[in-house]
Structure formats: structure tokens, C-alpha cells
Design a protein that fits this description.
The complex is a heterodimer of chains A (122) and B (166).
Chain A (H helix, E strand, L loop, with lengths): L1 H16 L2 H6 L5 H14 L4 H13 L4 H13 L5 H8 L1 H29 L1
Helix pairs in contact in A: 3-5, 4-5, 5-7, 6-7
Chain B lengths: L8 H17 L1 H35 L2 H8 L4 H14 L8 H9 L4 H10 L7 H8 L1 H29 L1
The chains are: A mainly alpha (122), B mainly alpha (166).
Amino acid sequence: MPMMLAIILLVSIFQTYITPETISKFFGYSGFYDVLTGTFVGAIASGHGSISFIIADGLKEQEVSLYALSTFTLAWVTLSFISLPAEASVFGIRFTTYRNILSFLSTILIVYLTIFTIGILS
Amino acid sequence: MKKIEFKGVKFFFIIFIAYSVLLIFDNSNTLISLFKAYHIFGTLIPIFIFIIILTAFINYFLKPKQILKHFGEDSGKKGIFYSIIGGILSHGPMYAWYGMLKDMREHGLKDGLIATFLYSRAVKLPLLPMMIAIFGIEYTIILNIYIIIFSVIQGKIIDKFIKVDK
């Protein structure tokens, strides 16, 4: 329970200080930079998954690449840097490290593979 | 008698200190954060209740031997399948599920299947219409197929790594 409360309080701080406007400022640079930014920002940000889509929709209008938008929305729901302490205390540091590194890499790979597959199919 | 664990007291204390400091320097935003925390907690209560009931059901109906059979070392494809379905159907934030997974892990749930469950949660059924509206149907279908494939790959790799470490 203390861990859960601590995470909720931490999530609230992030939601207060990291607003959609703040997030949009990180994008709009070069291709791979935006992909990495998308993954990191998605992993740090928190909140309901629908928020990530609303932000992505806004970023799309700013012509941010599909790669960056996809990694951002996918990282939002698969990675959670805020809950790392909780994950480590429940499952151990080794499991948490492996899982988060793999999830981080998977997020980028999945997005590239998806867009590559769409390219082939069309 | 089993001793009750209060995990995260230190972490909570650090956050409490952070809030106290923020309250001095940025009073209005700290109060907004506290209000948001109250709101999040309120929305999570039904999910917590659901998870507590689900955990109780699992403990009652699935004995350690059965958990080992369905989700243990020799669970095979069936274990992967259940983990993916469980991940897709699970709601709420990831951390809300840690308690239940920990409980099942103590009864034999494989680490790889935990990873599979946690990553397949990225397939968000209620959000699919929104995803289709923004990214298109073709993209949404392909992305979600890859998410499921990678959730399985992650599980396999984690099981390999954990075995090597042991």
C-alpha cells in the first residue's frame, strides 16, 4: 500500500508538471532523434492511454514523423519509468532491468517493423 | 503467522518529503498534484477491488500445483496463451497488477510469462477505435500483431537470461 500510494503521488506530480504542451516541445527535430525522444517521453509520461493518442493527434498536425508518434504512444502503455522502483521491489532488480531494456528495444523495433510491413503490403 | 510486509515505506517517505518541499516552493501546483492523486486513487479503487477478488479466486481455485502446471516451467504454449489473453483483458495501470503477479510468482508463475503478460497489455481493446482514427486500420492491426509477437519473444528471452544467471 505505501508503494502504491507513493507511485500515485509521483504520477500526479508528473501529470502536473509534464503537460501535453511540454511534451510537444520535445519533438520536431531529426528522424531517429524523434524516435528516441518519443520512446523516452512516452516512458516517463503517465496517465490513461487515451491521453497519449490525443497528444499524438496534436503532434501529427505539427508533422512529427509516424515513427516518433508510434514509439511515443507504444512506450506510454508499455514502459513506466515512474513505477520502476515498485517493479524492482516486487520482482527484483534483475527481472526489472531485463524487462525494461527489452521493452524499450521492442518498442522501437515494433514501430520500424510495422511501418516496414505496411510499406511492403502497399 | 505470516508477517505483513509494508513494501515501499522508504519510497513513500521520499515522495512525502518531495511533496513537503514542493508545497513550500510551488504551493498551487502541489495542491493540484494532490488533487490529481486523490482523483487517480478514486478511479483505481474499482480496479483494486477487481484485482483483490481475482487474486482470491486464483488462490482458492488454482492450487500451487495447478499454477505450476498452467504457468510454470512446463506450461508451454498454453501458459503463453493465457498470459497474452490475461494481458490484453487486464485494465488499469501496470503497477496495479504487481501484487497479483507477485502472489502467483510465489506459487510458480514463470518470469517469462510475467513479461509476456505485462507487454501484451499494450494491446488496448477499448482504445482501438481511437488508434484506428489516428493511425489507420492497417497500421493498428499490424502493430498489435507485432506487440503480441514481441511479448512472447520478451518472455522467452527473459526466461533464458534468468536461467543463465542462476
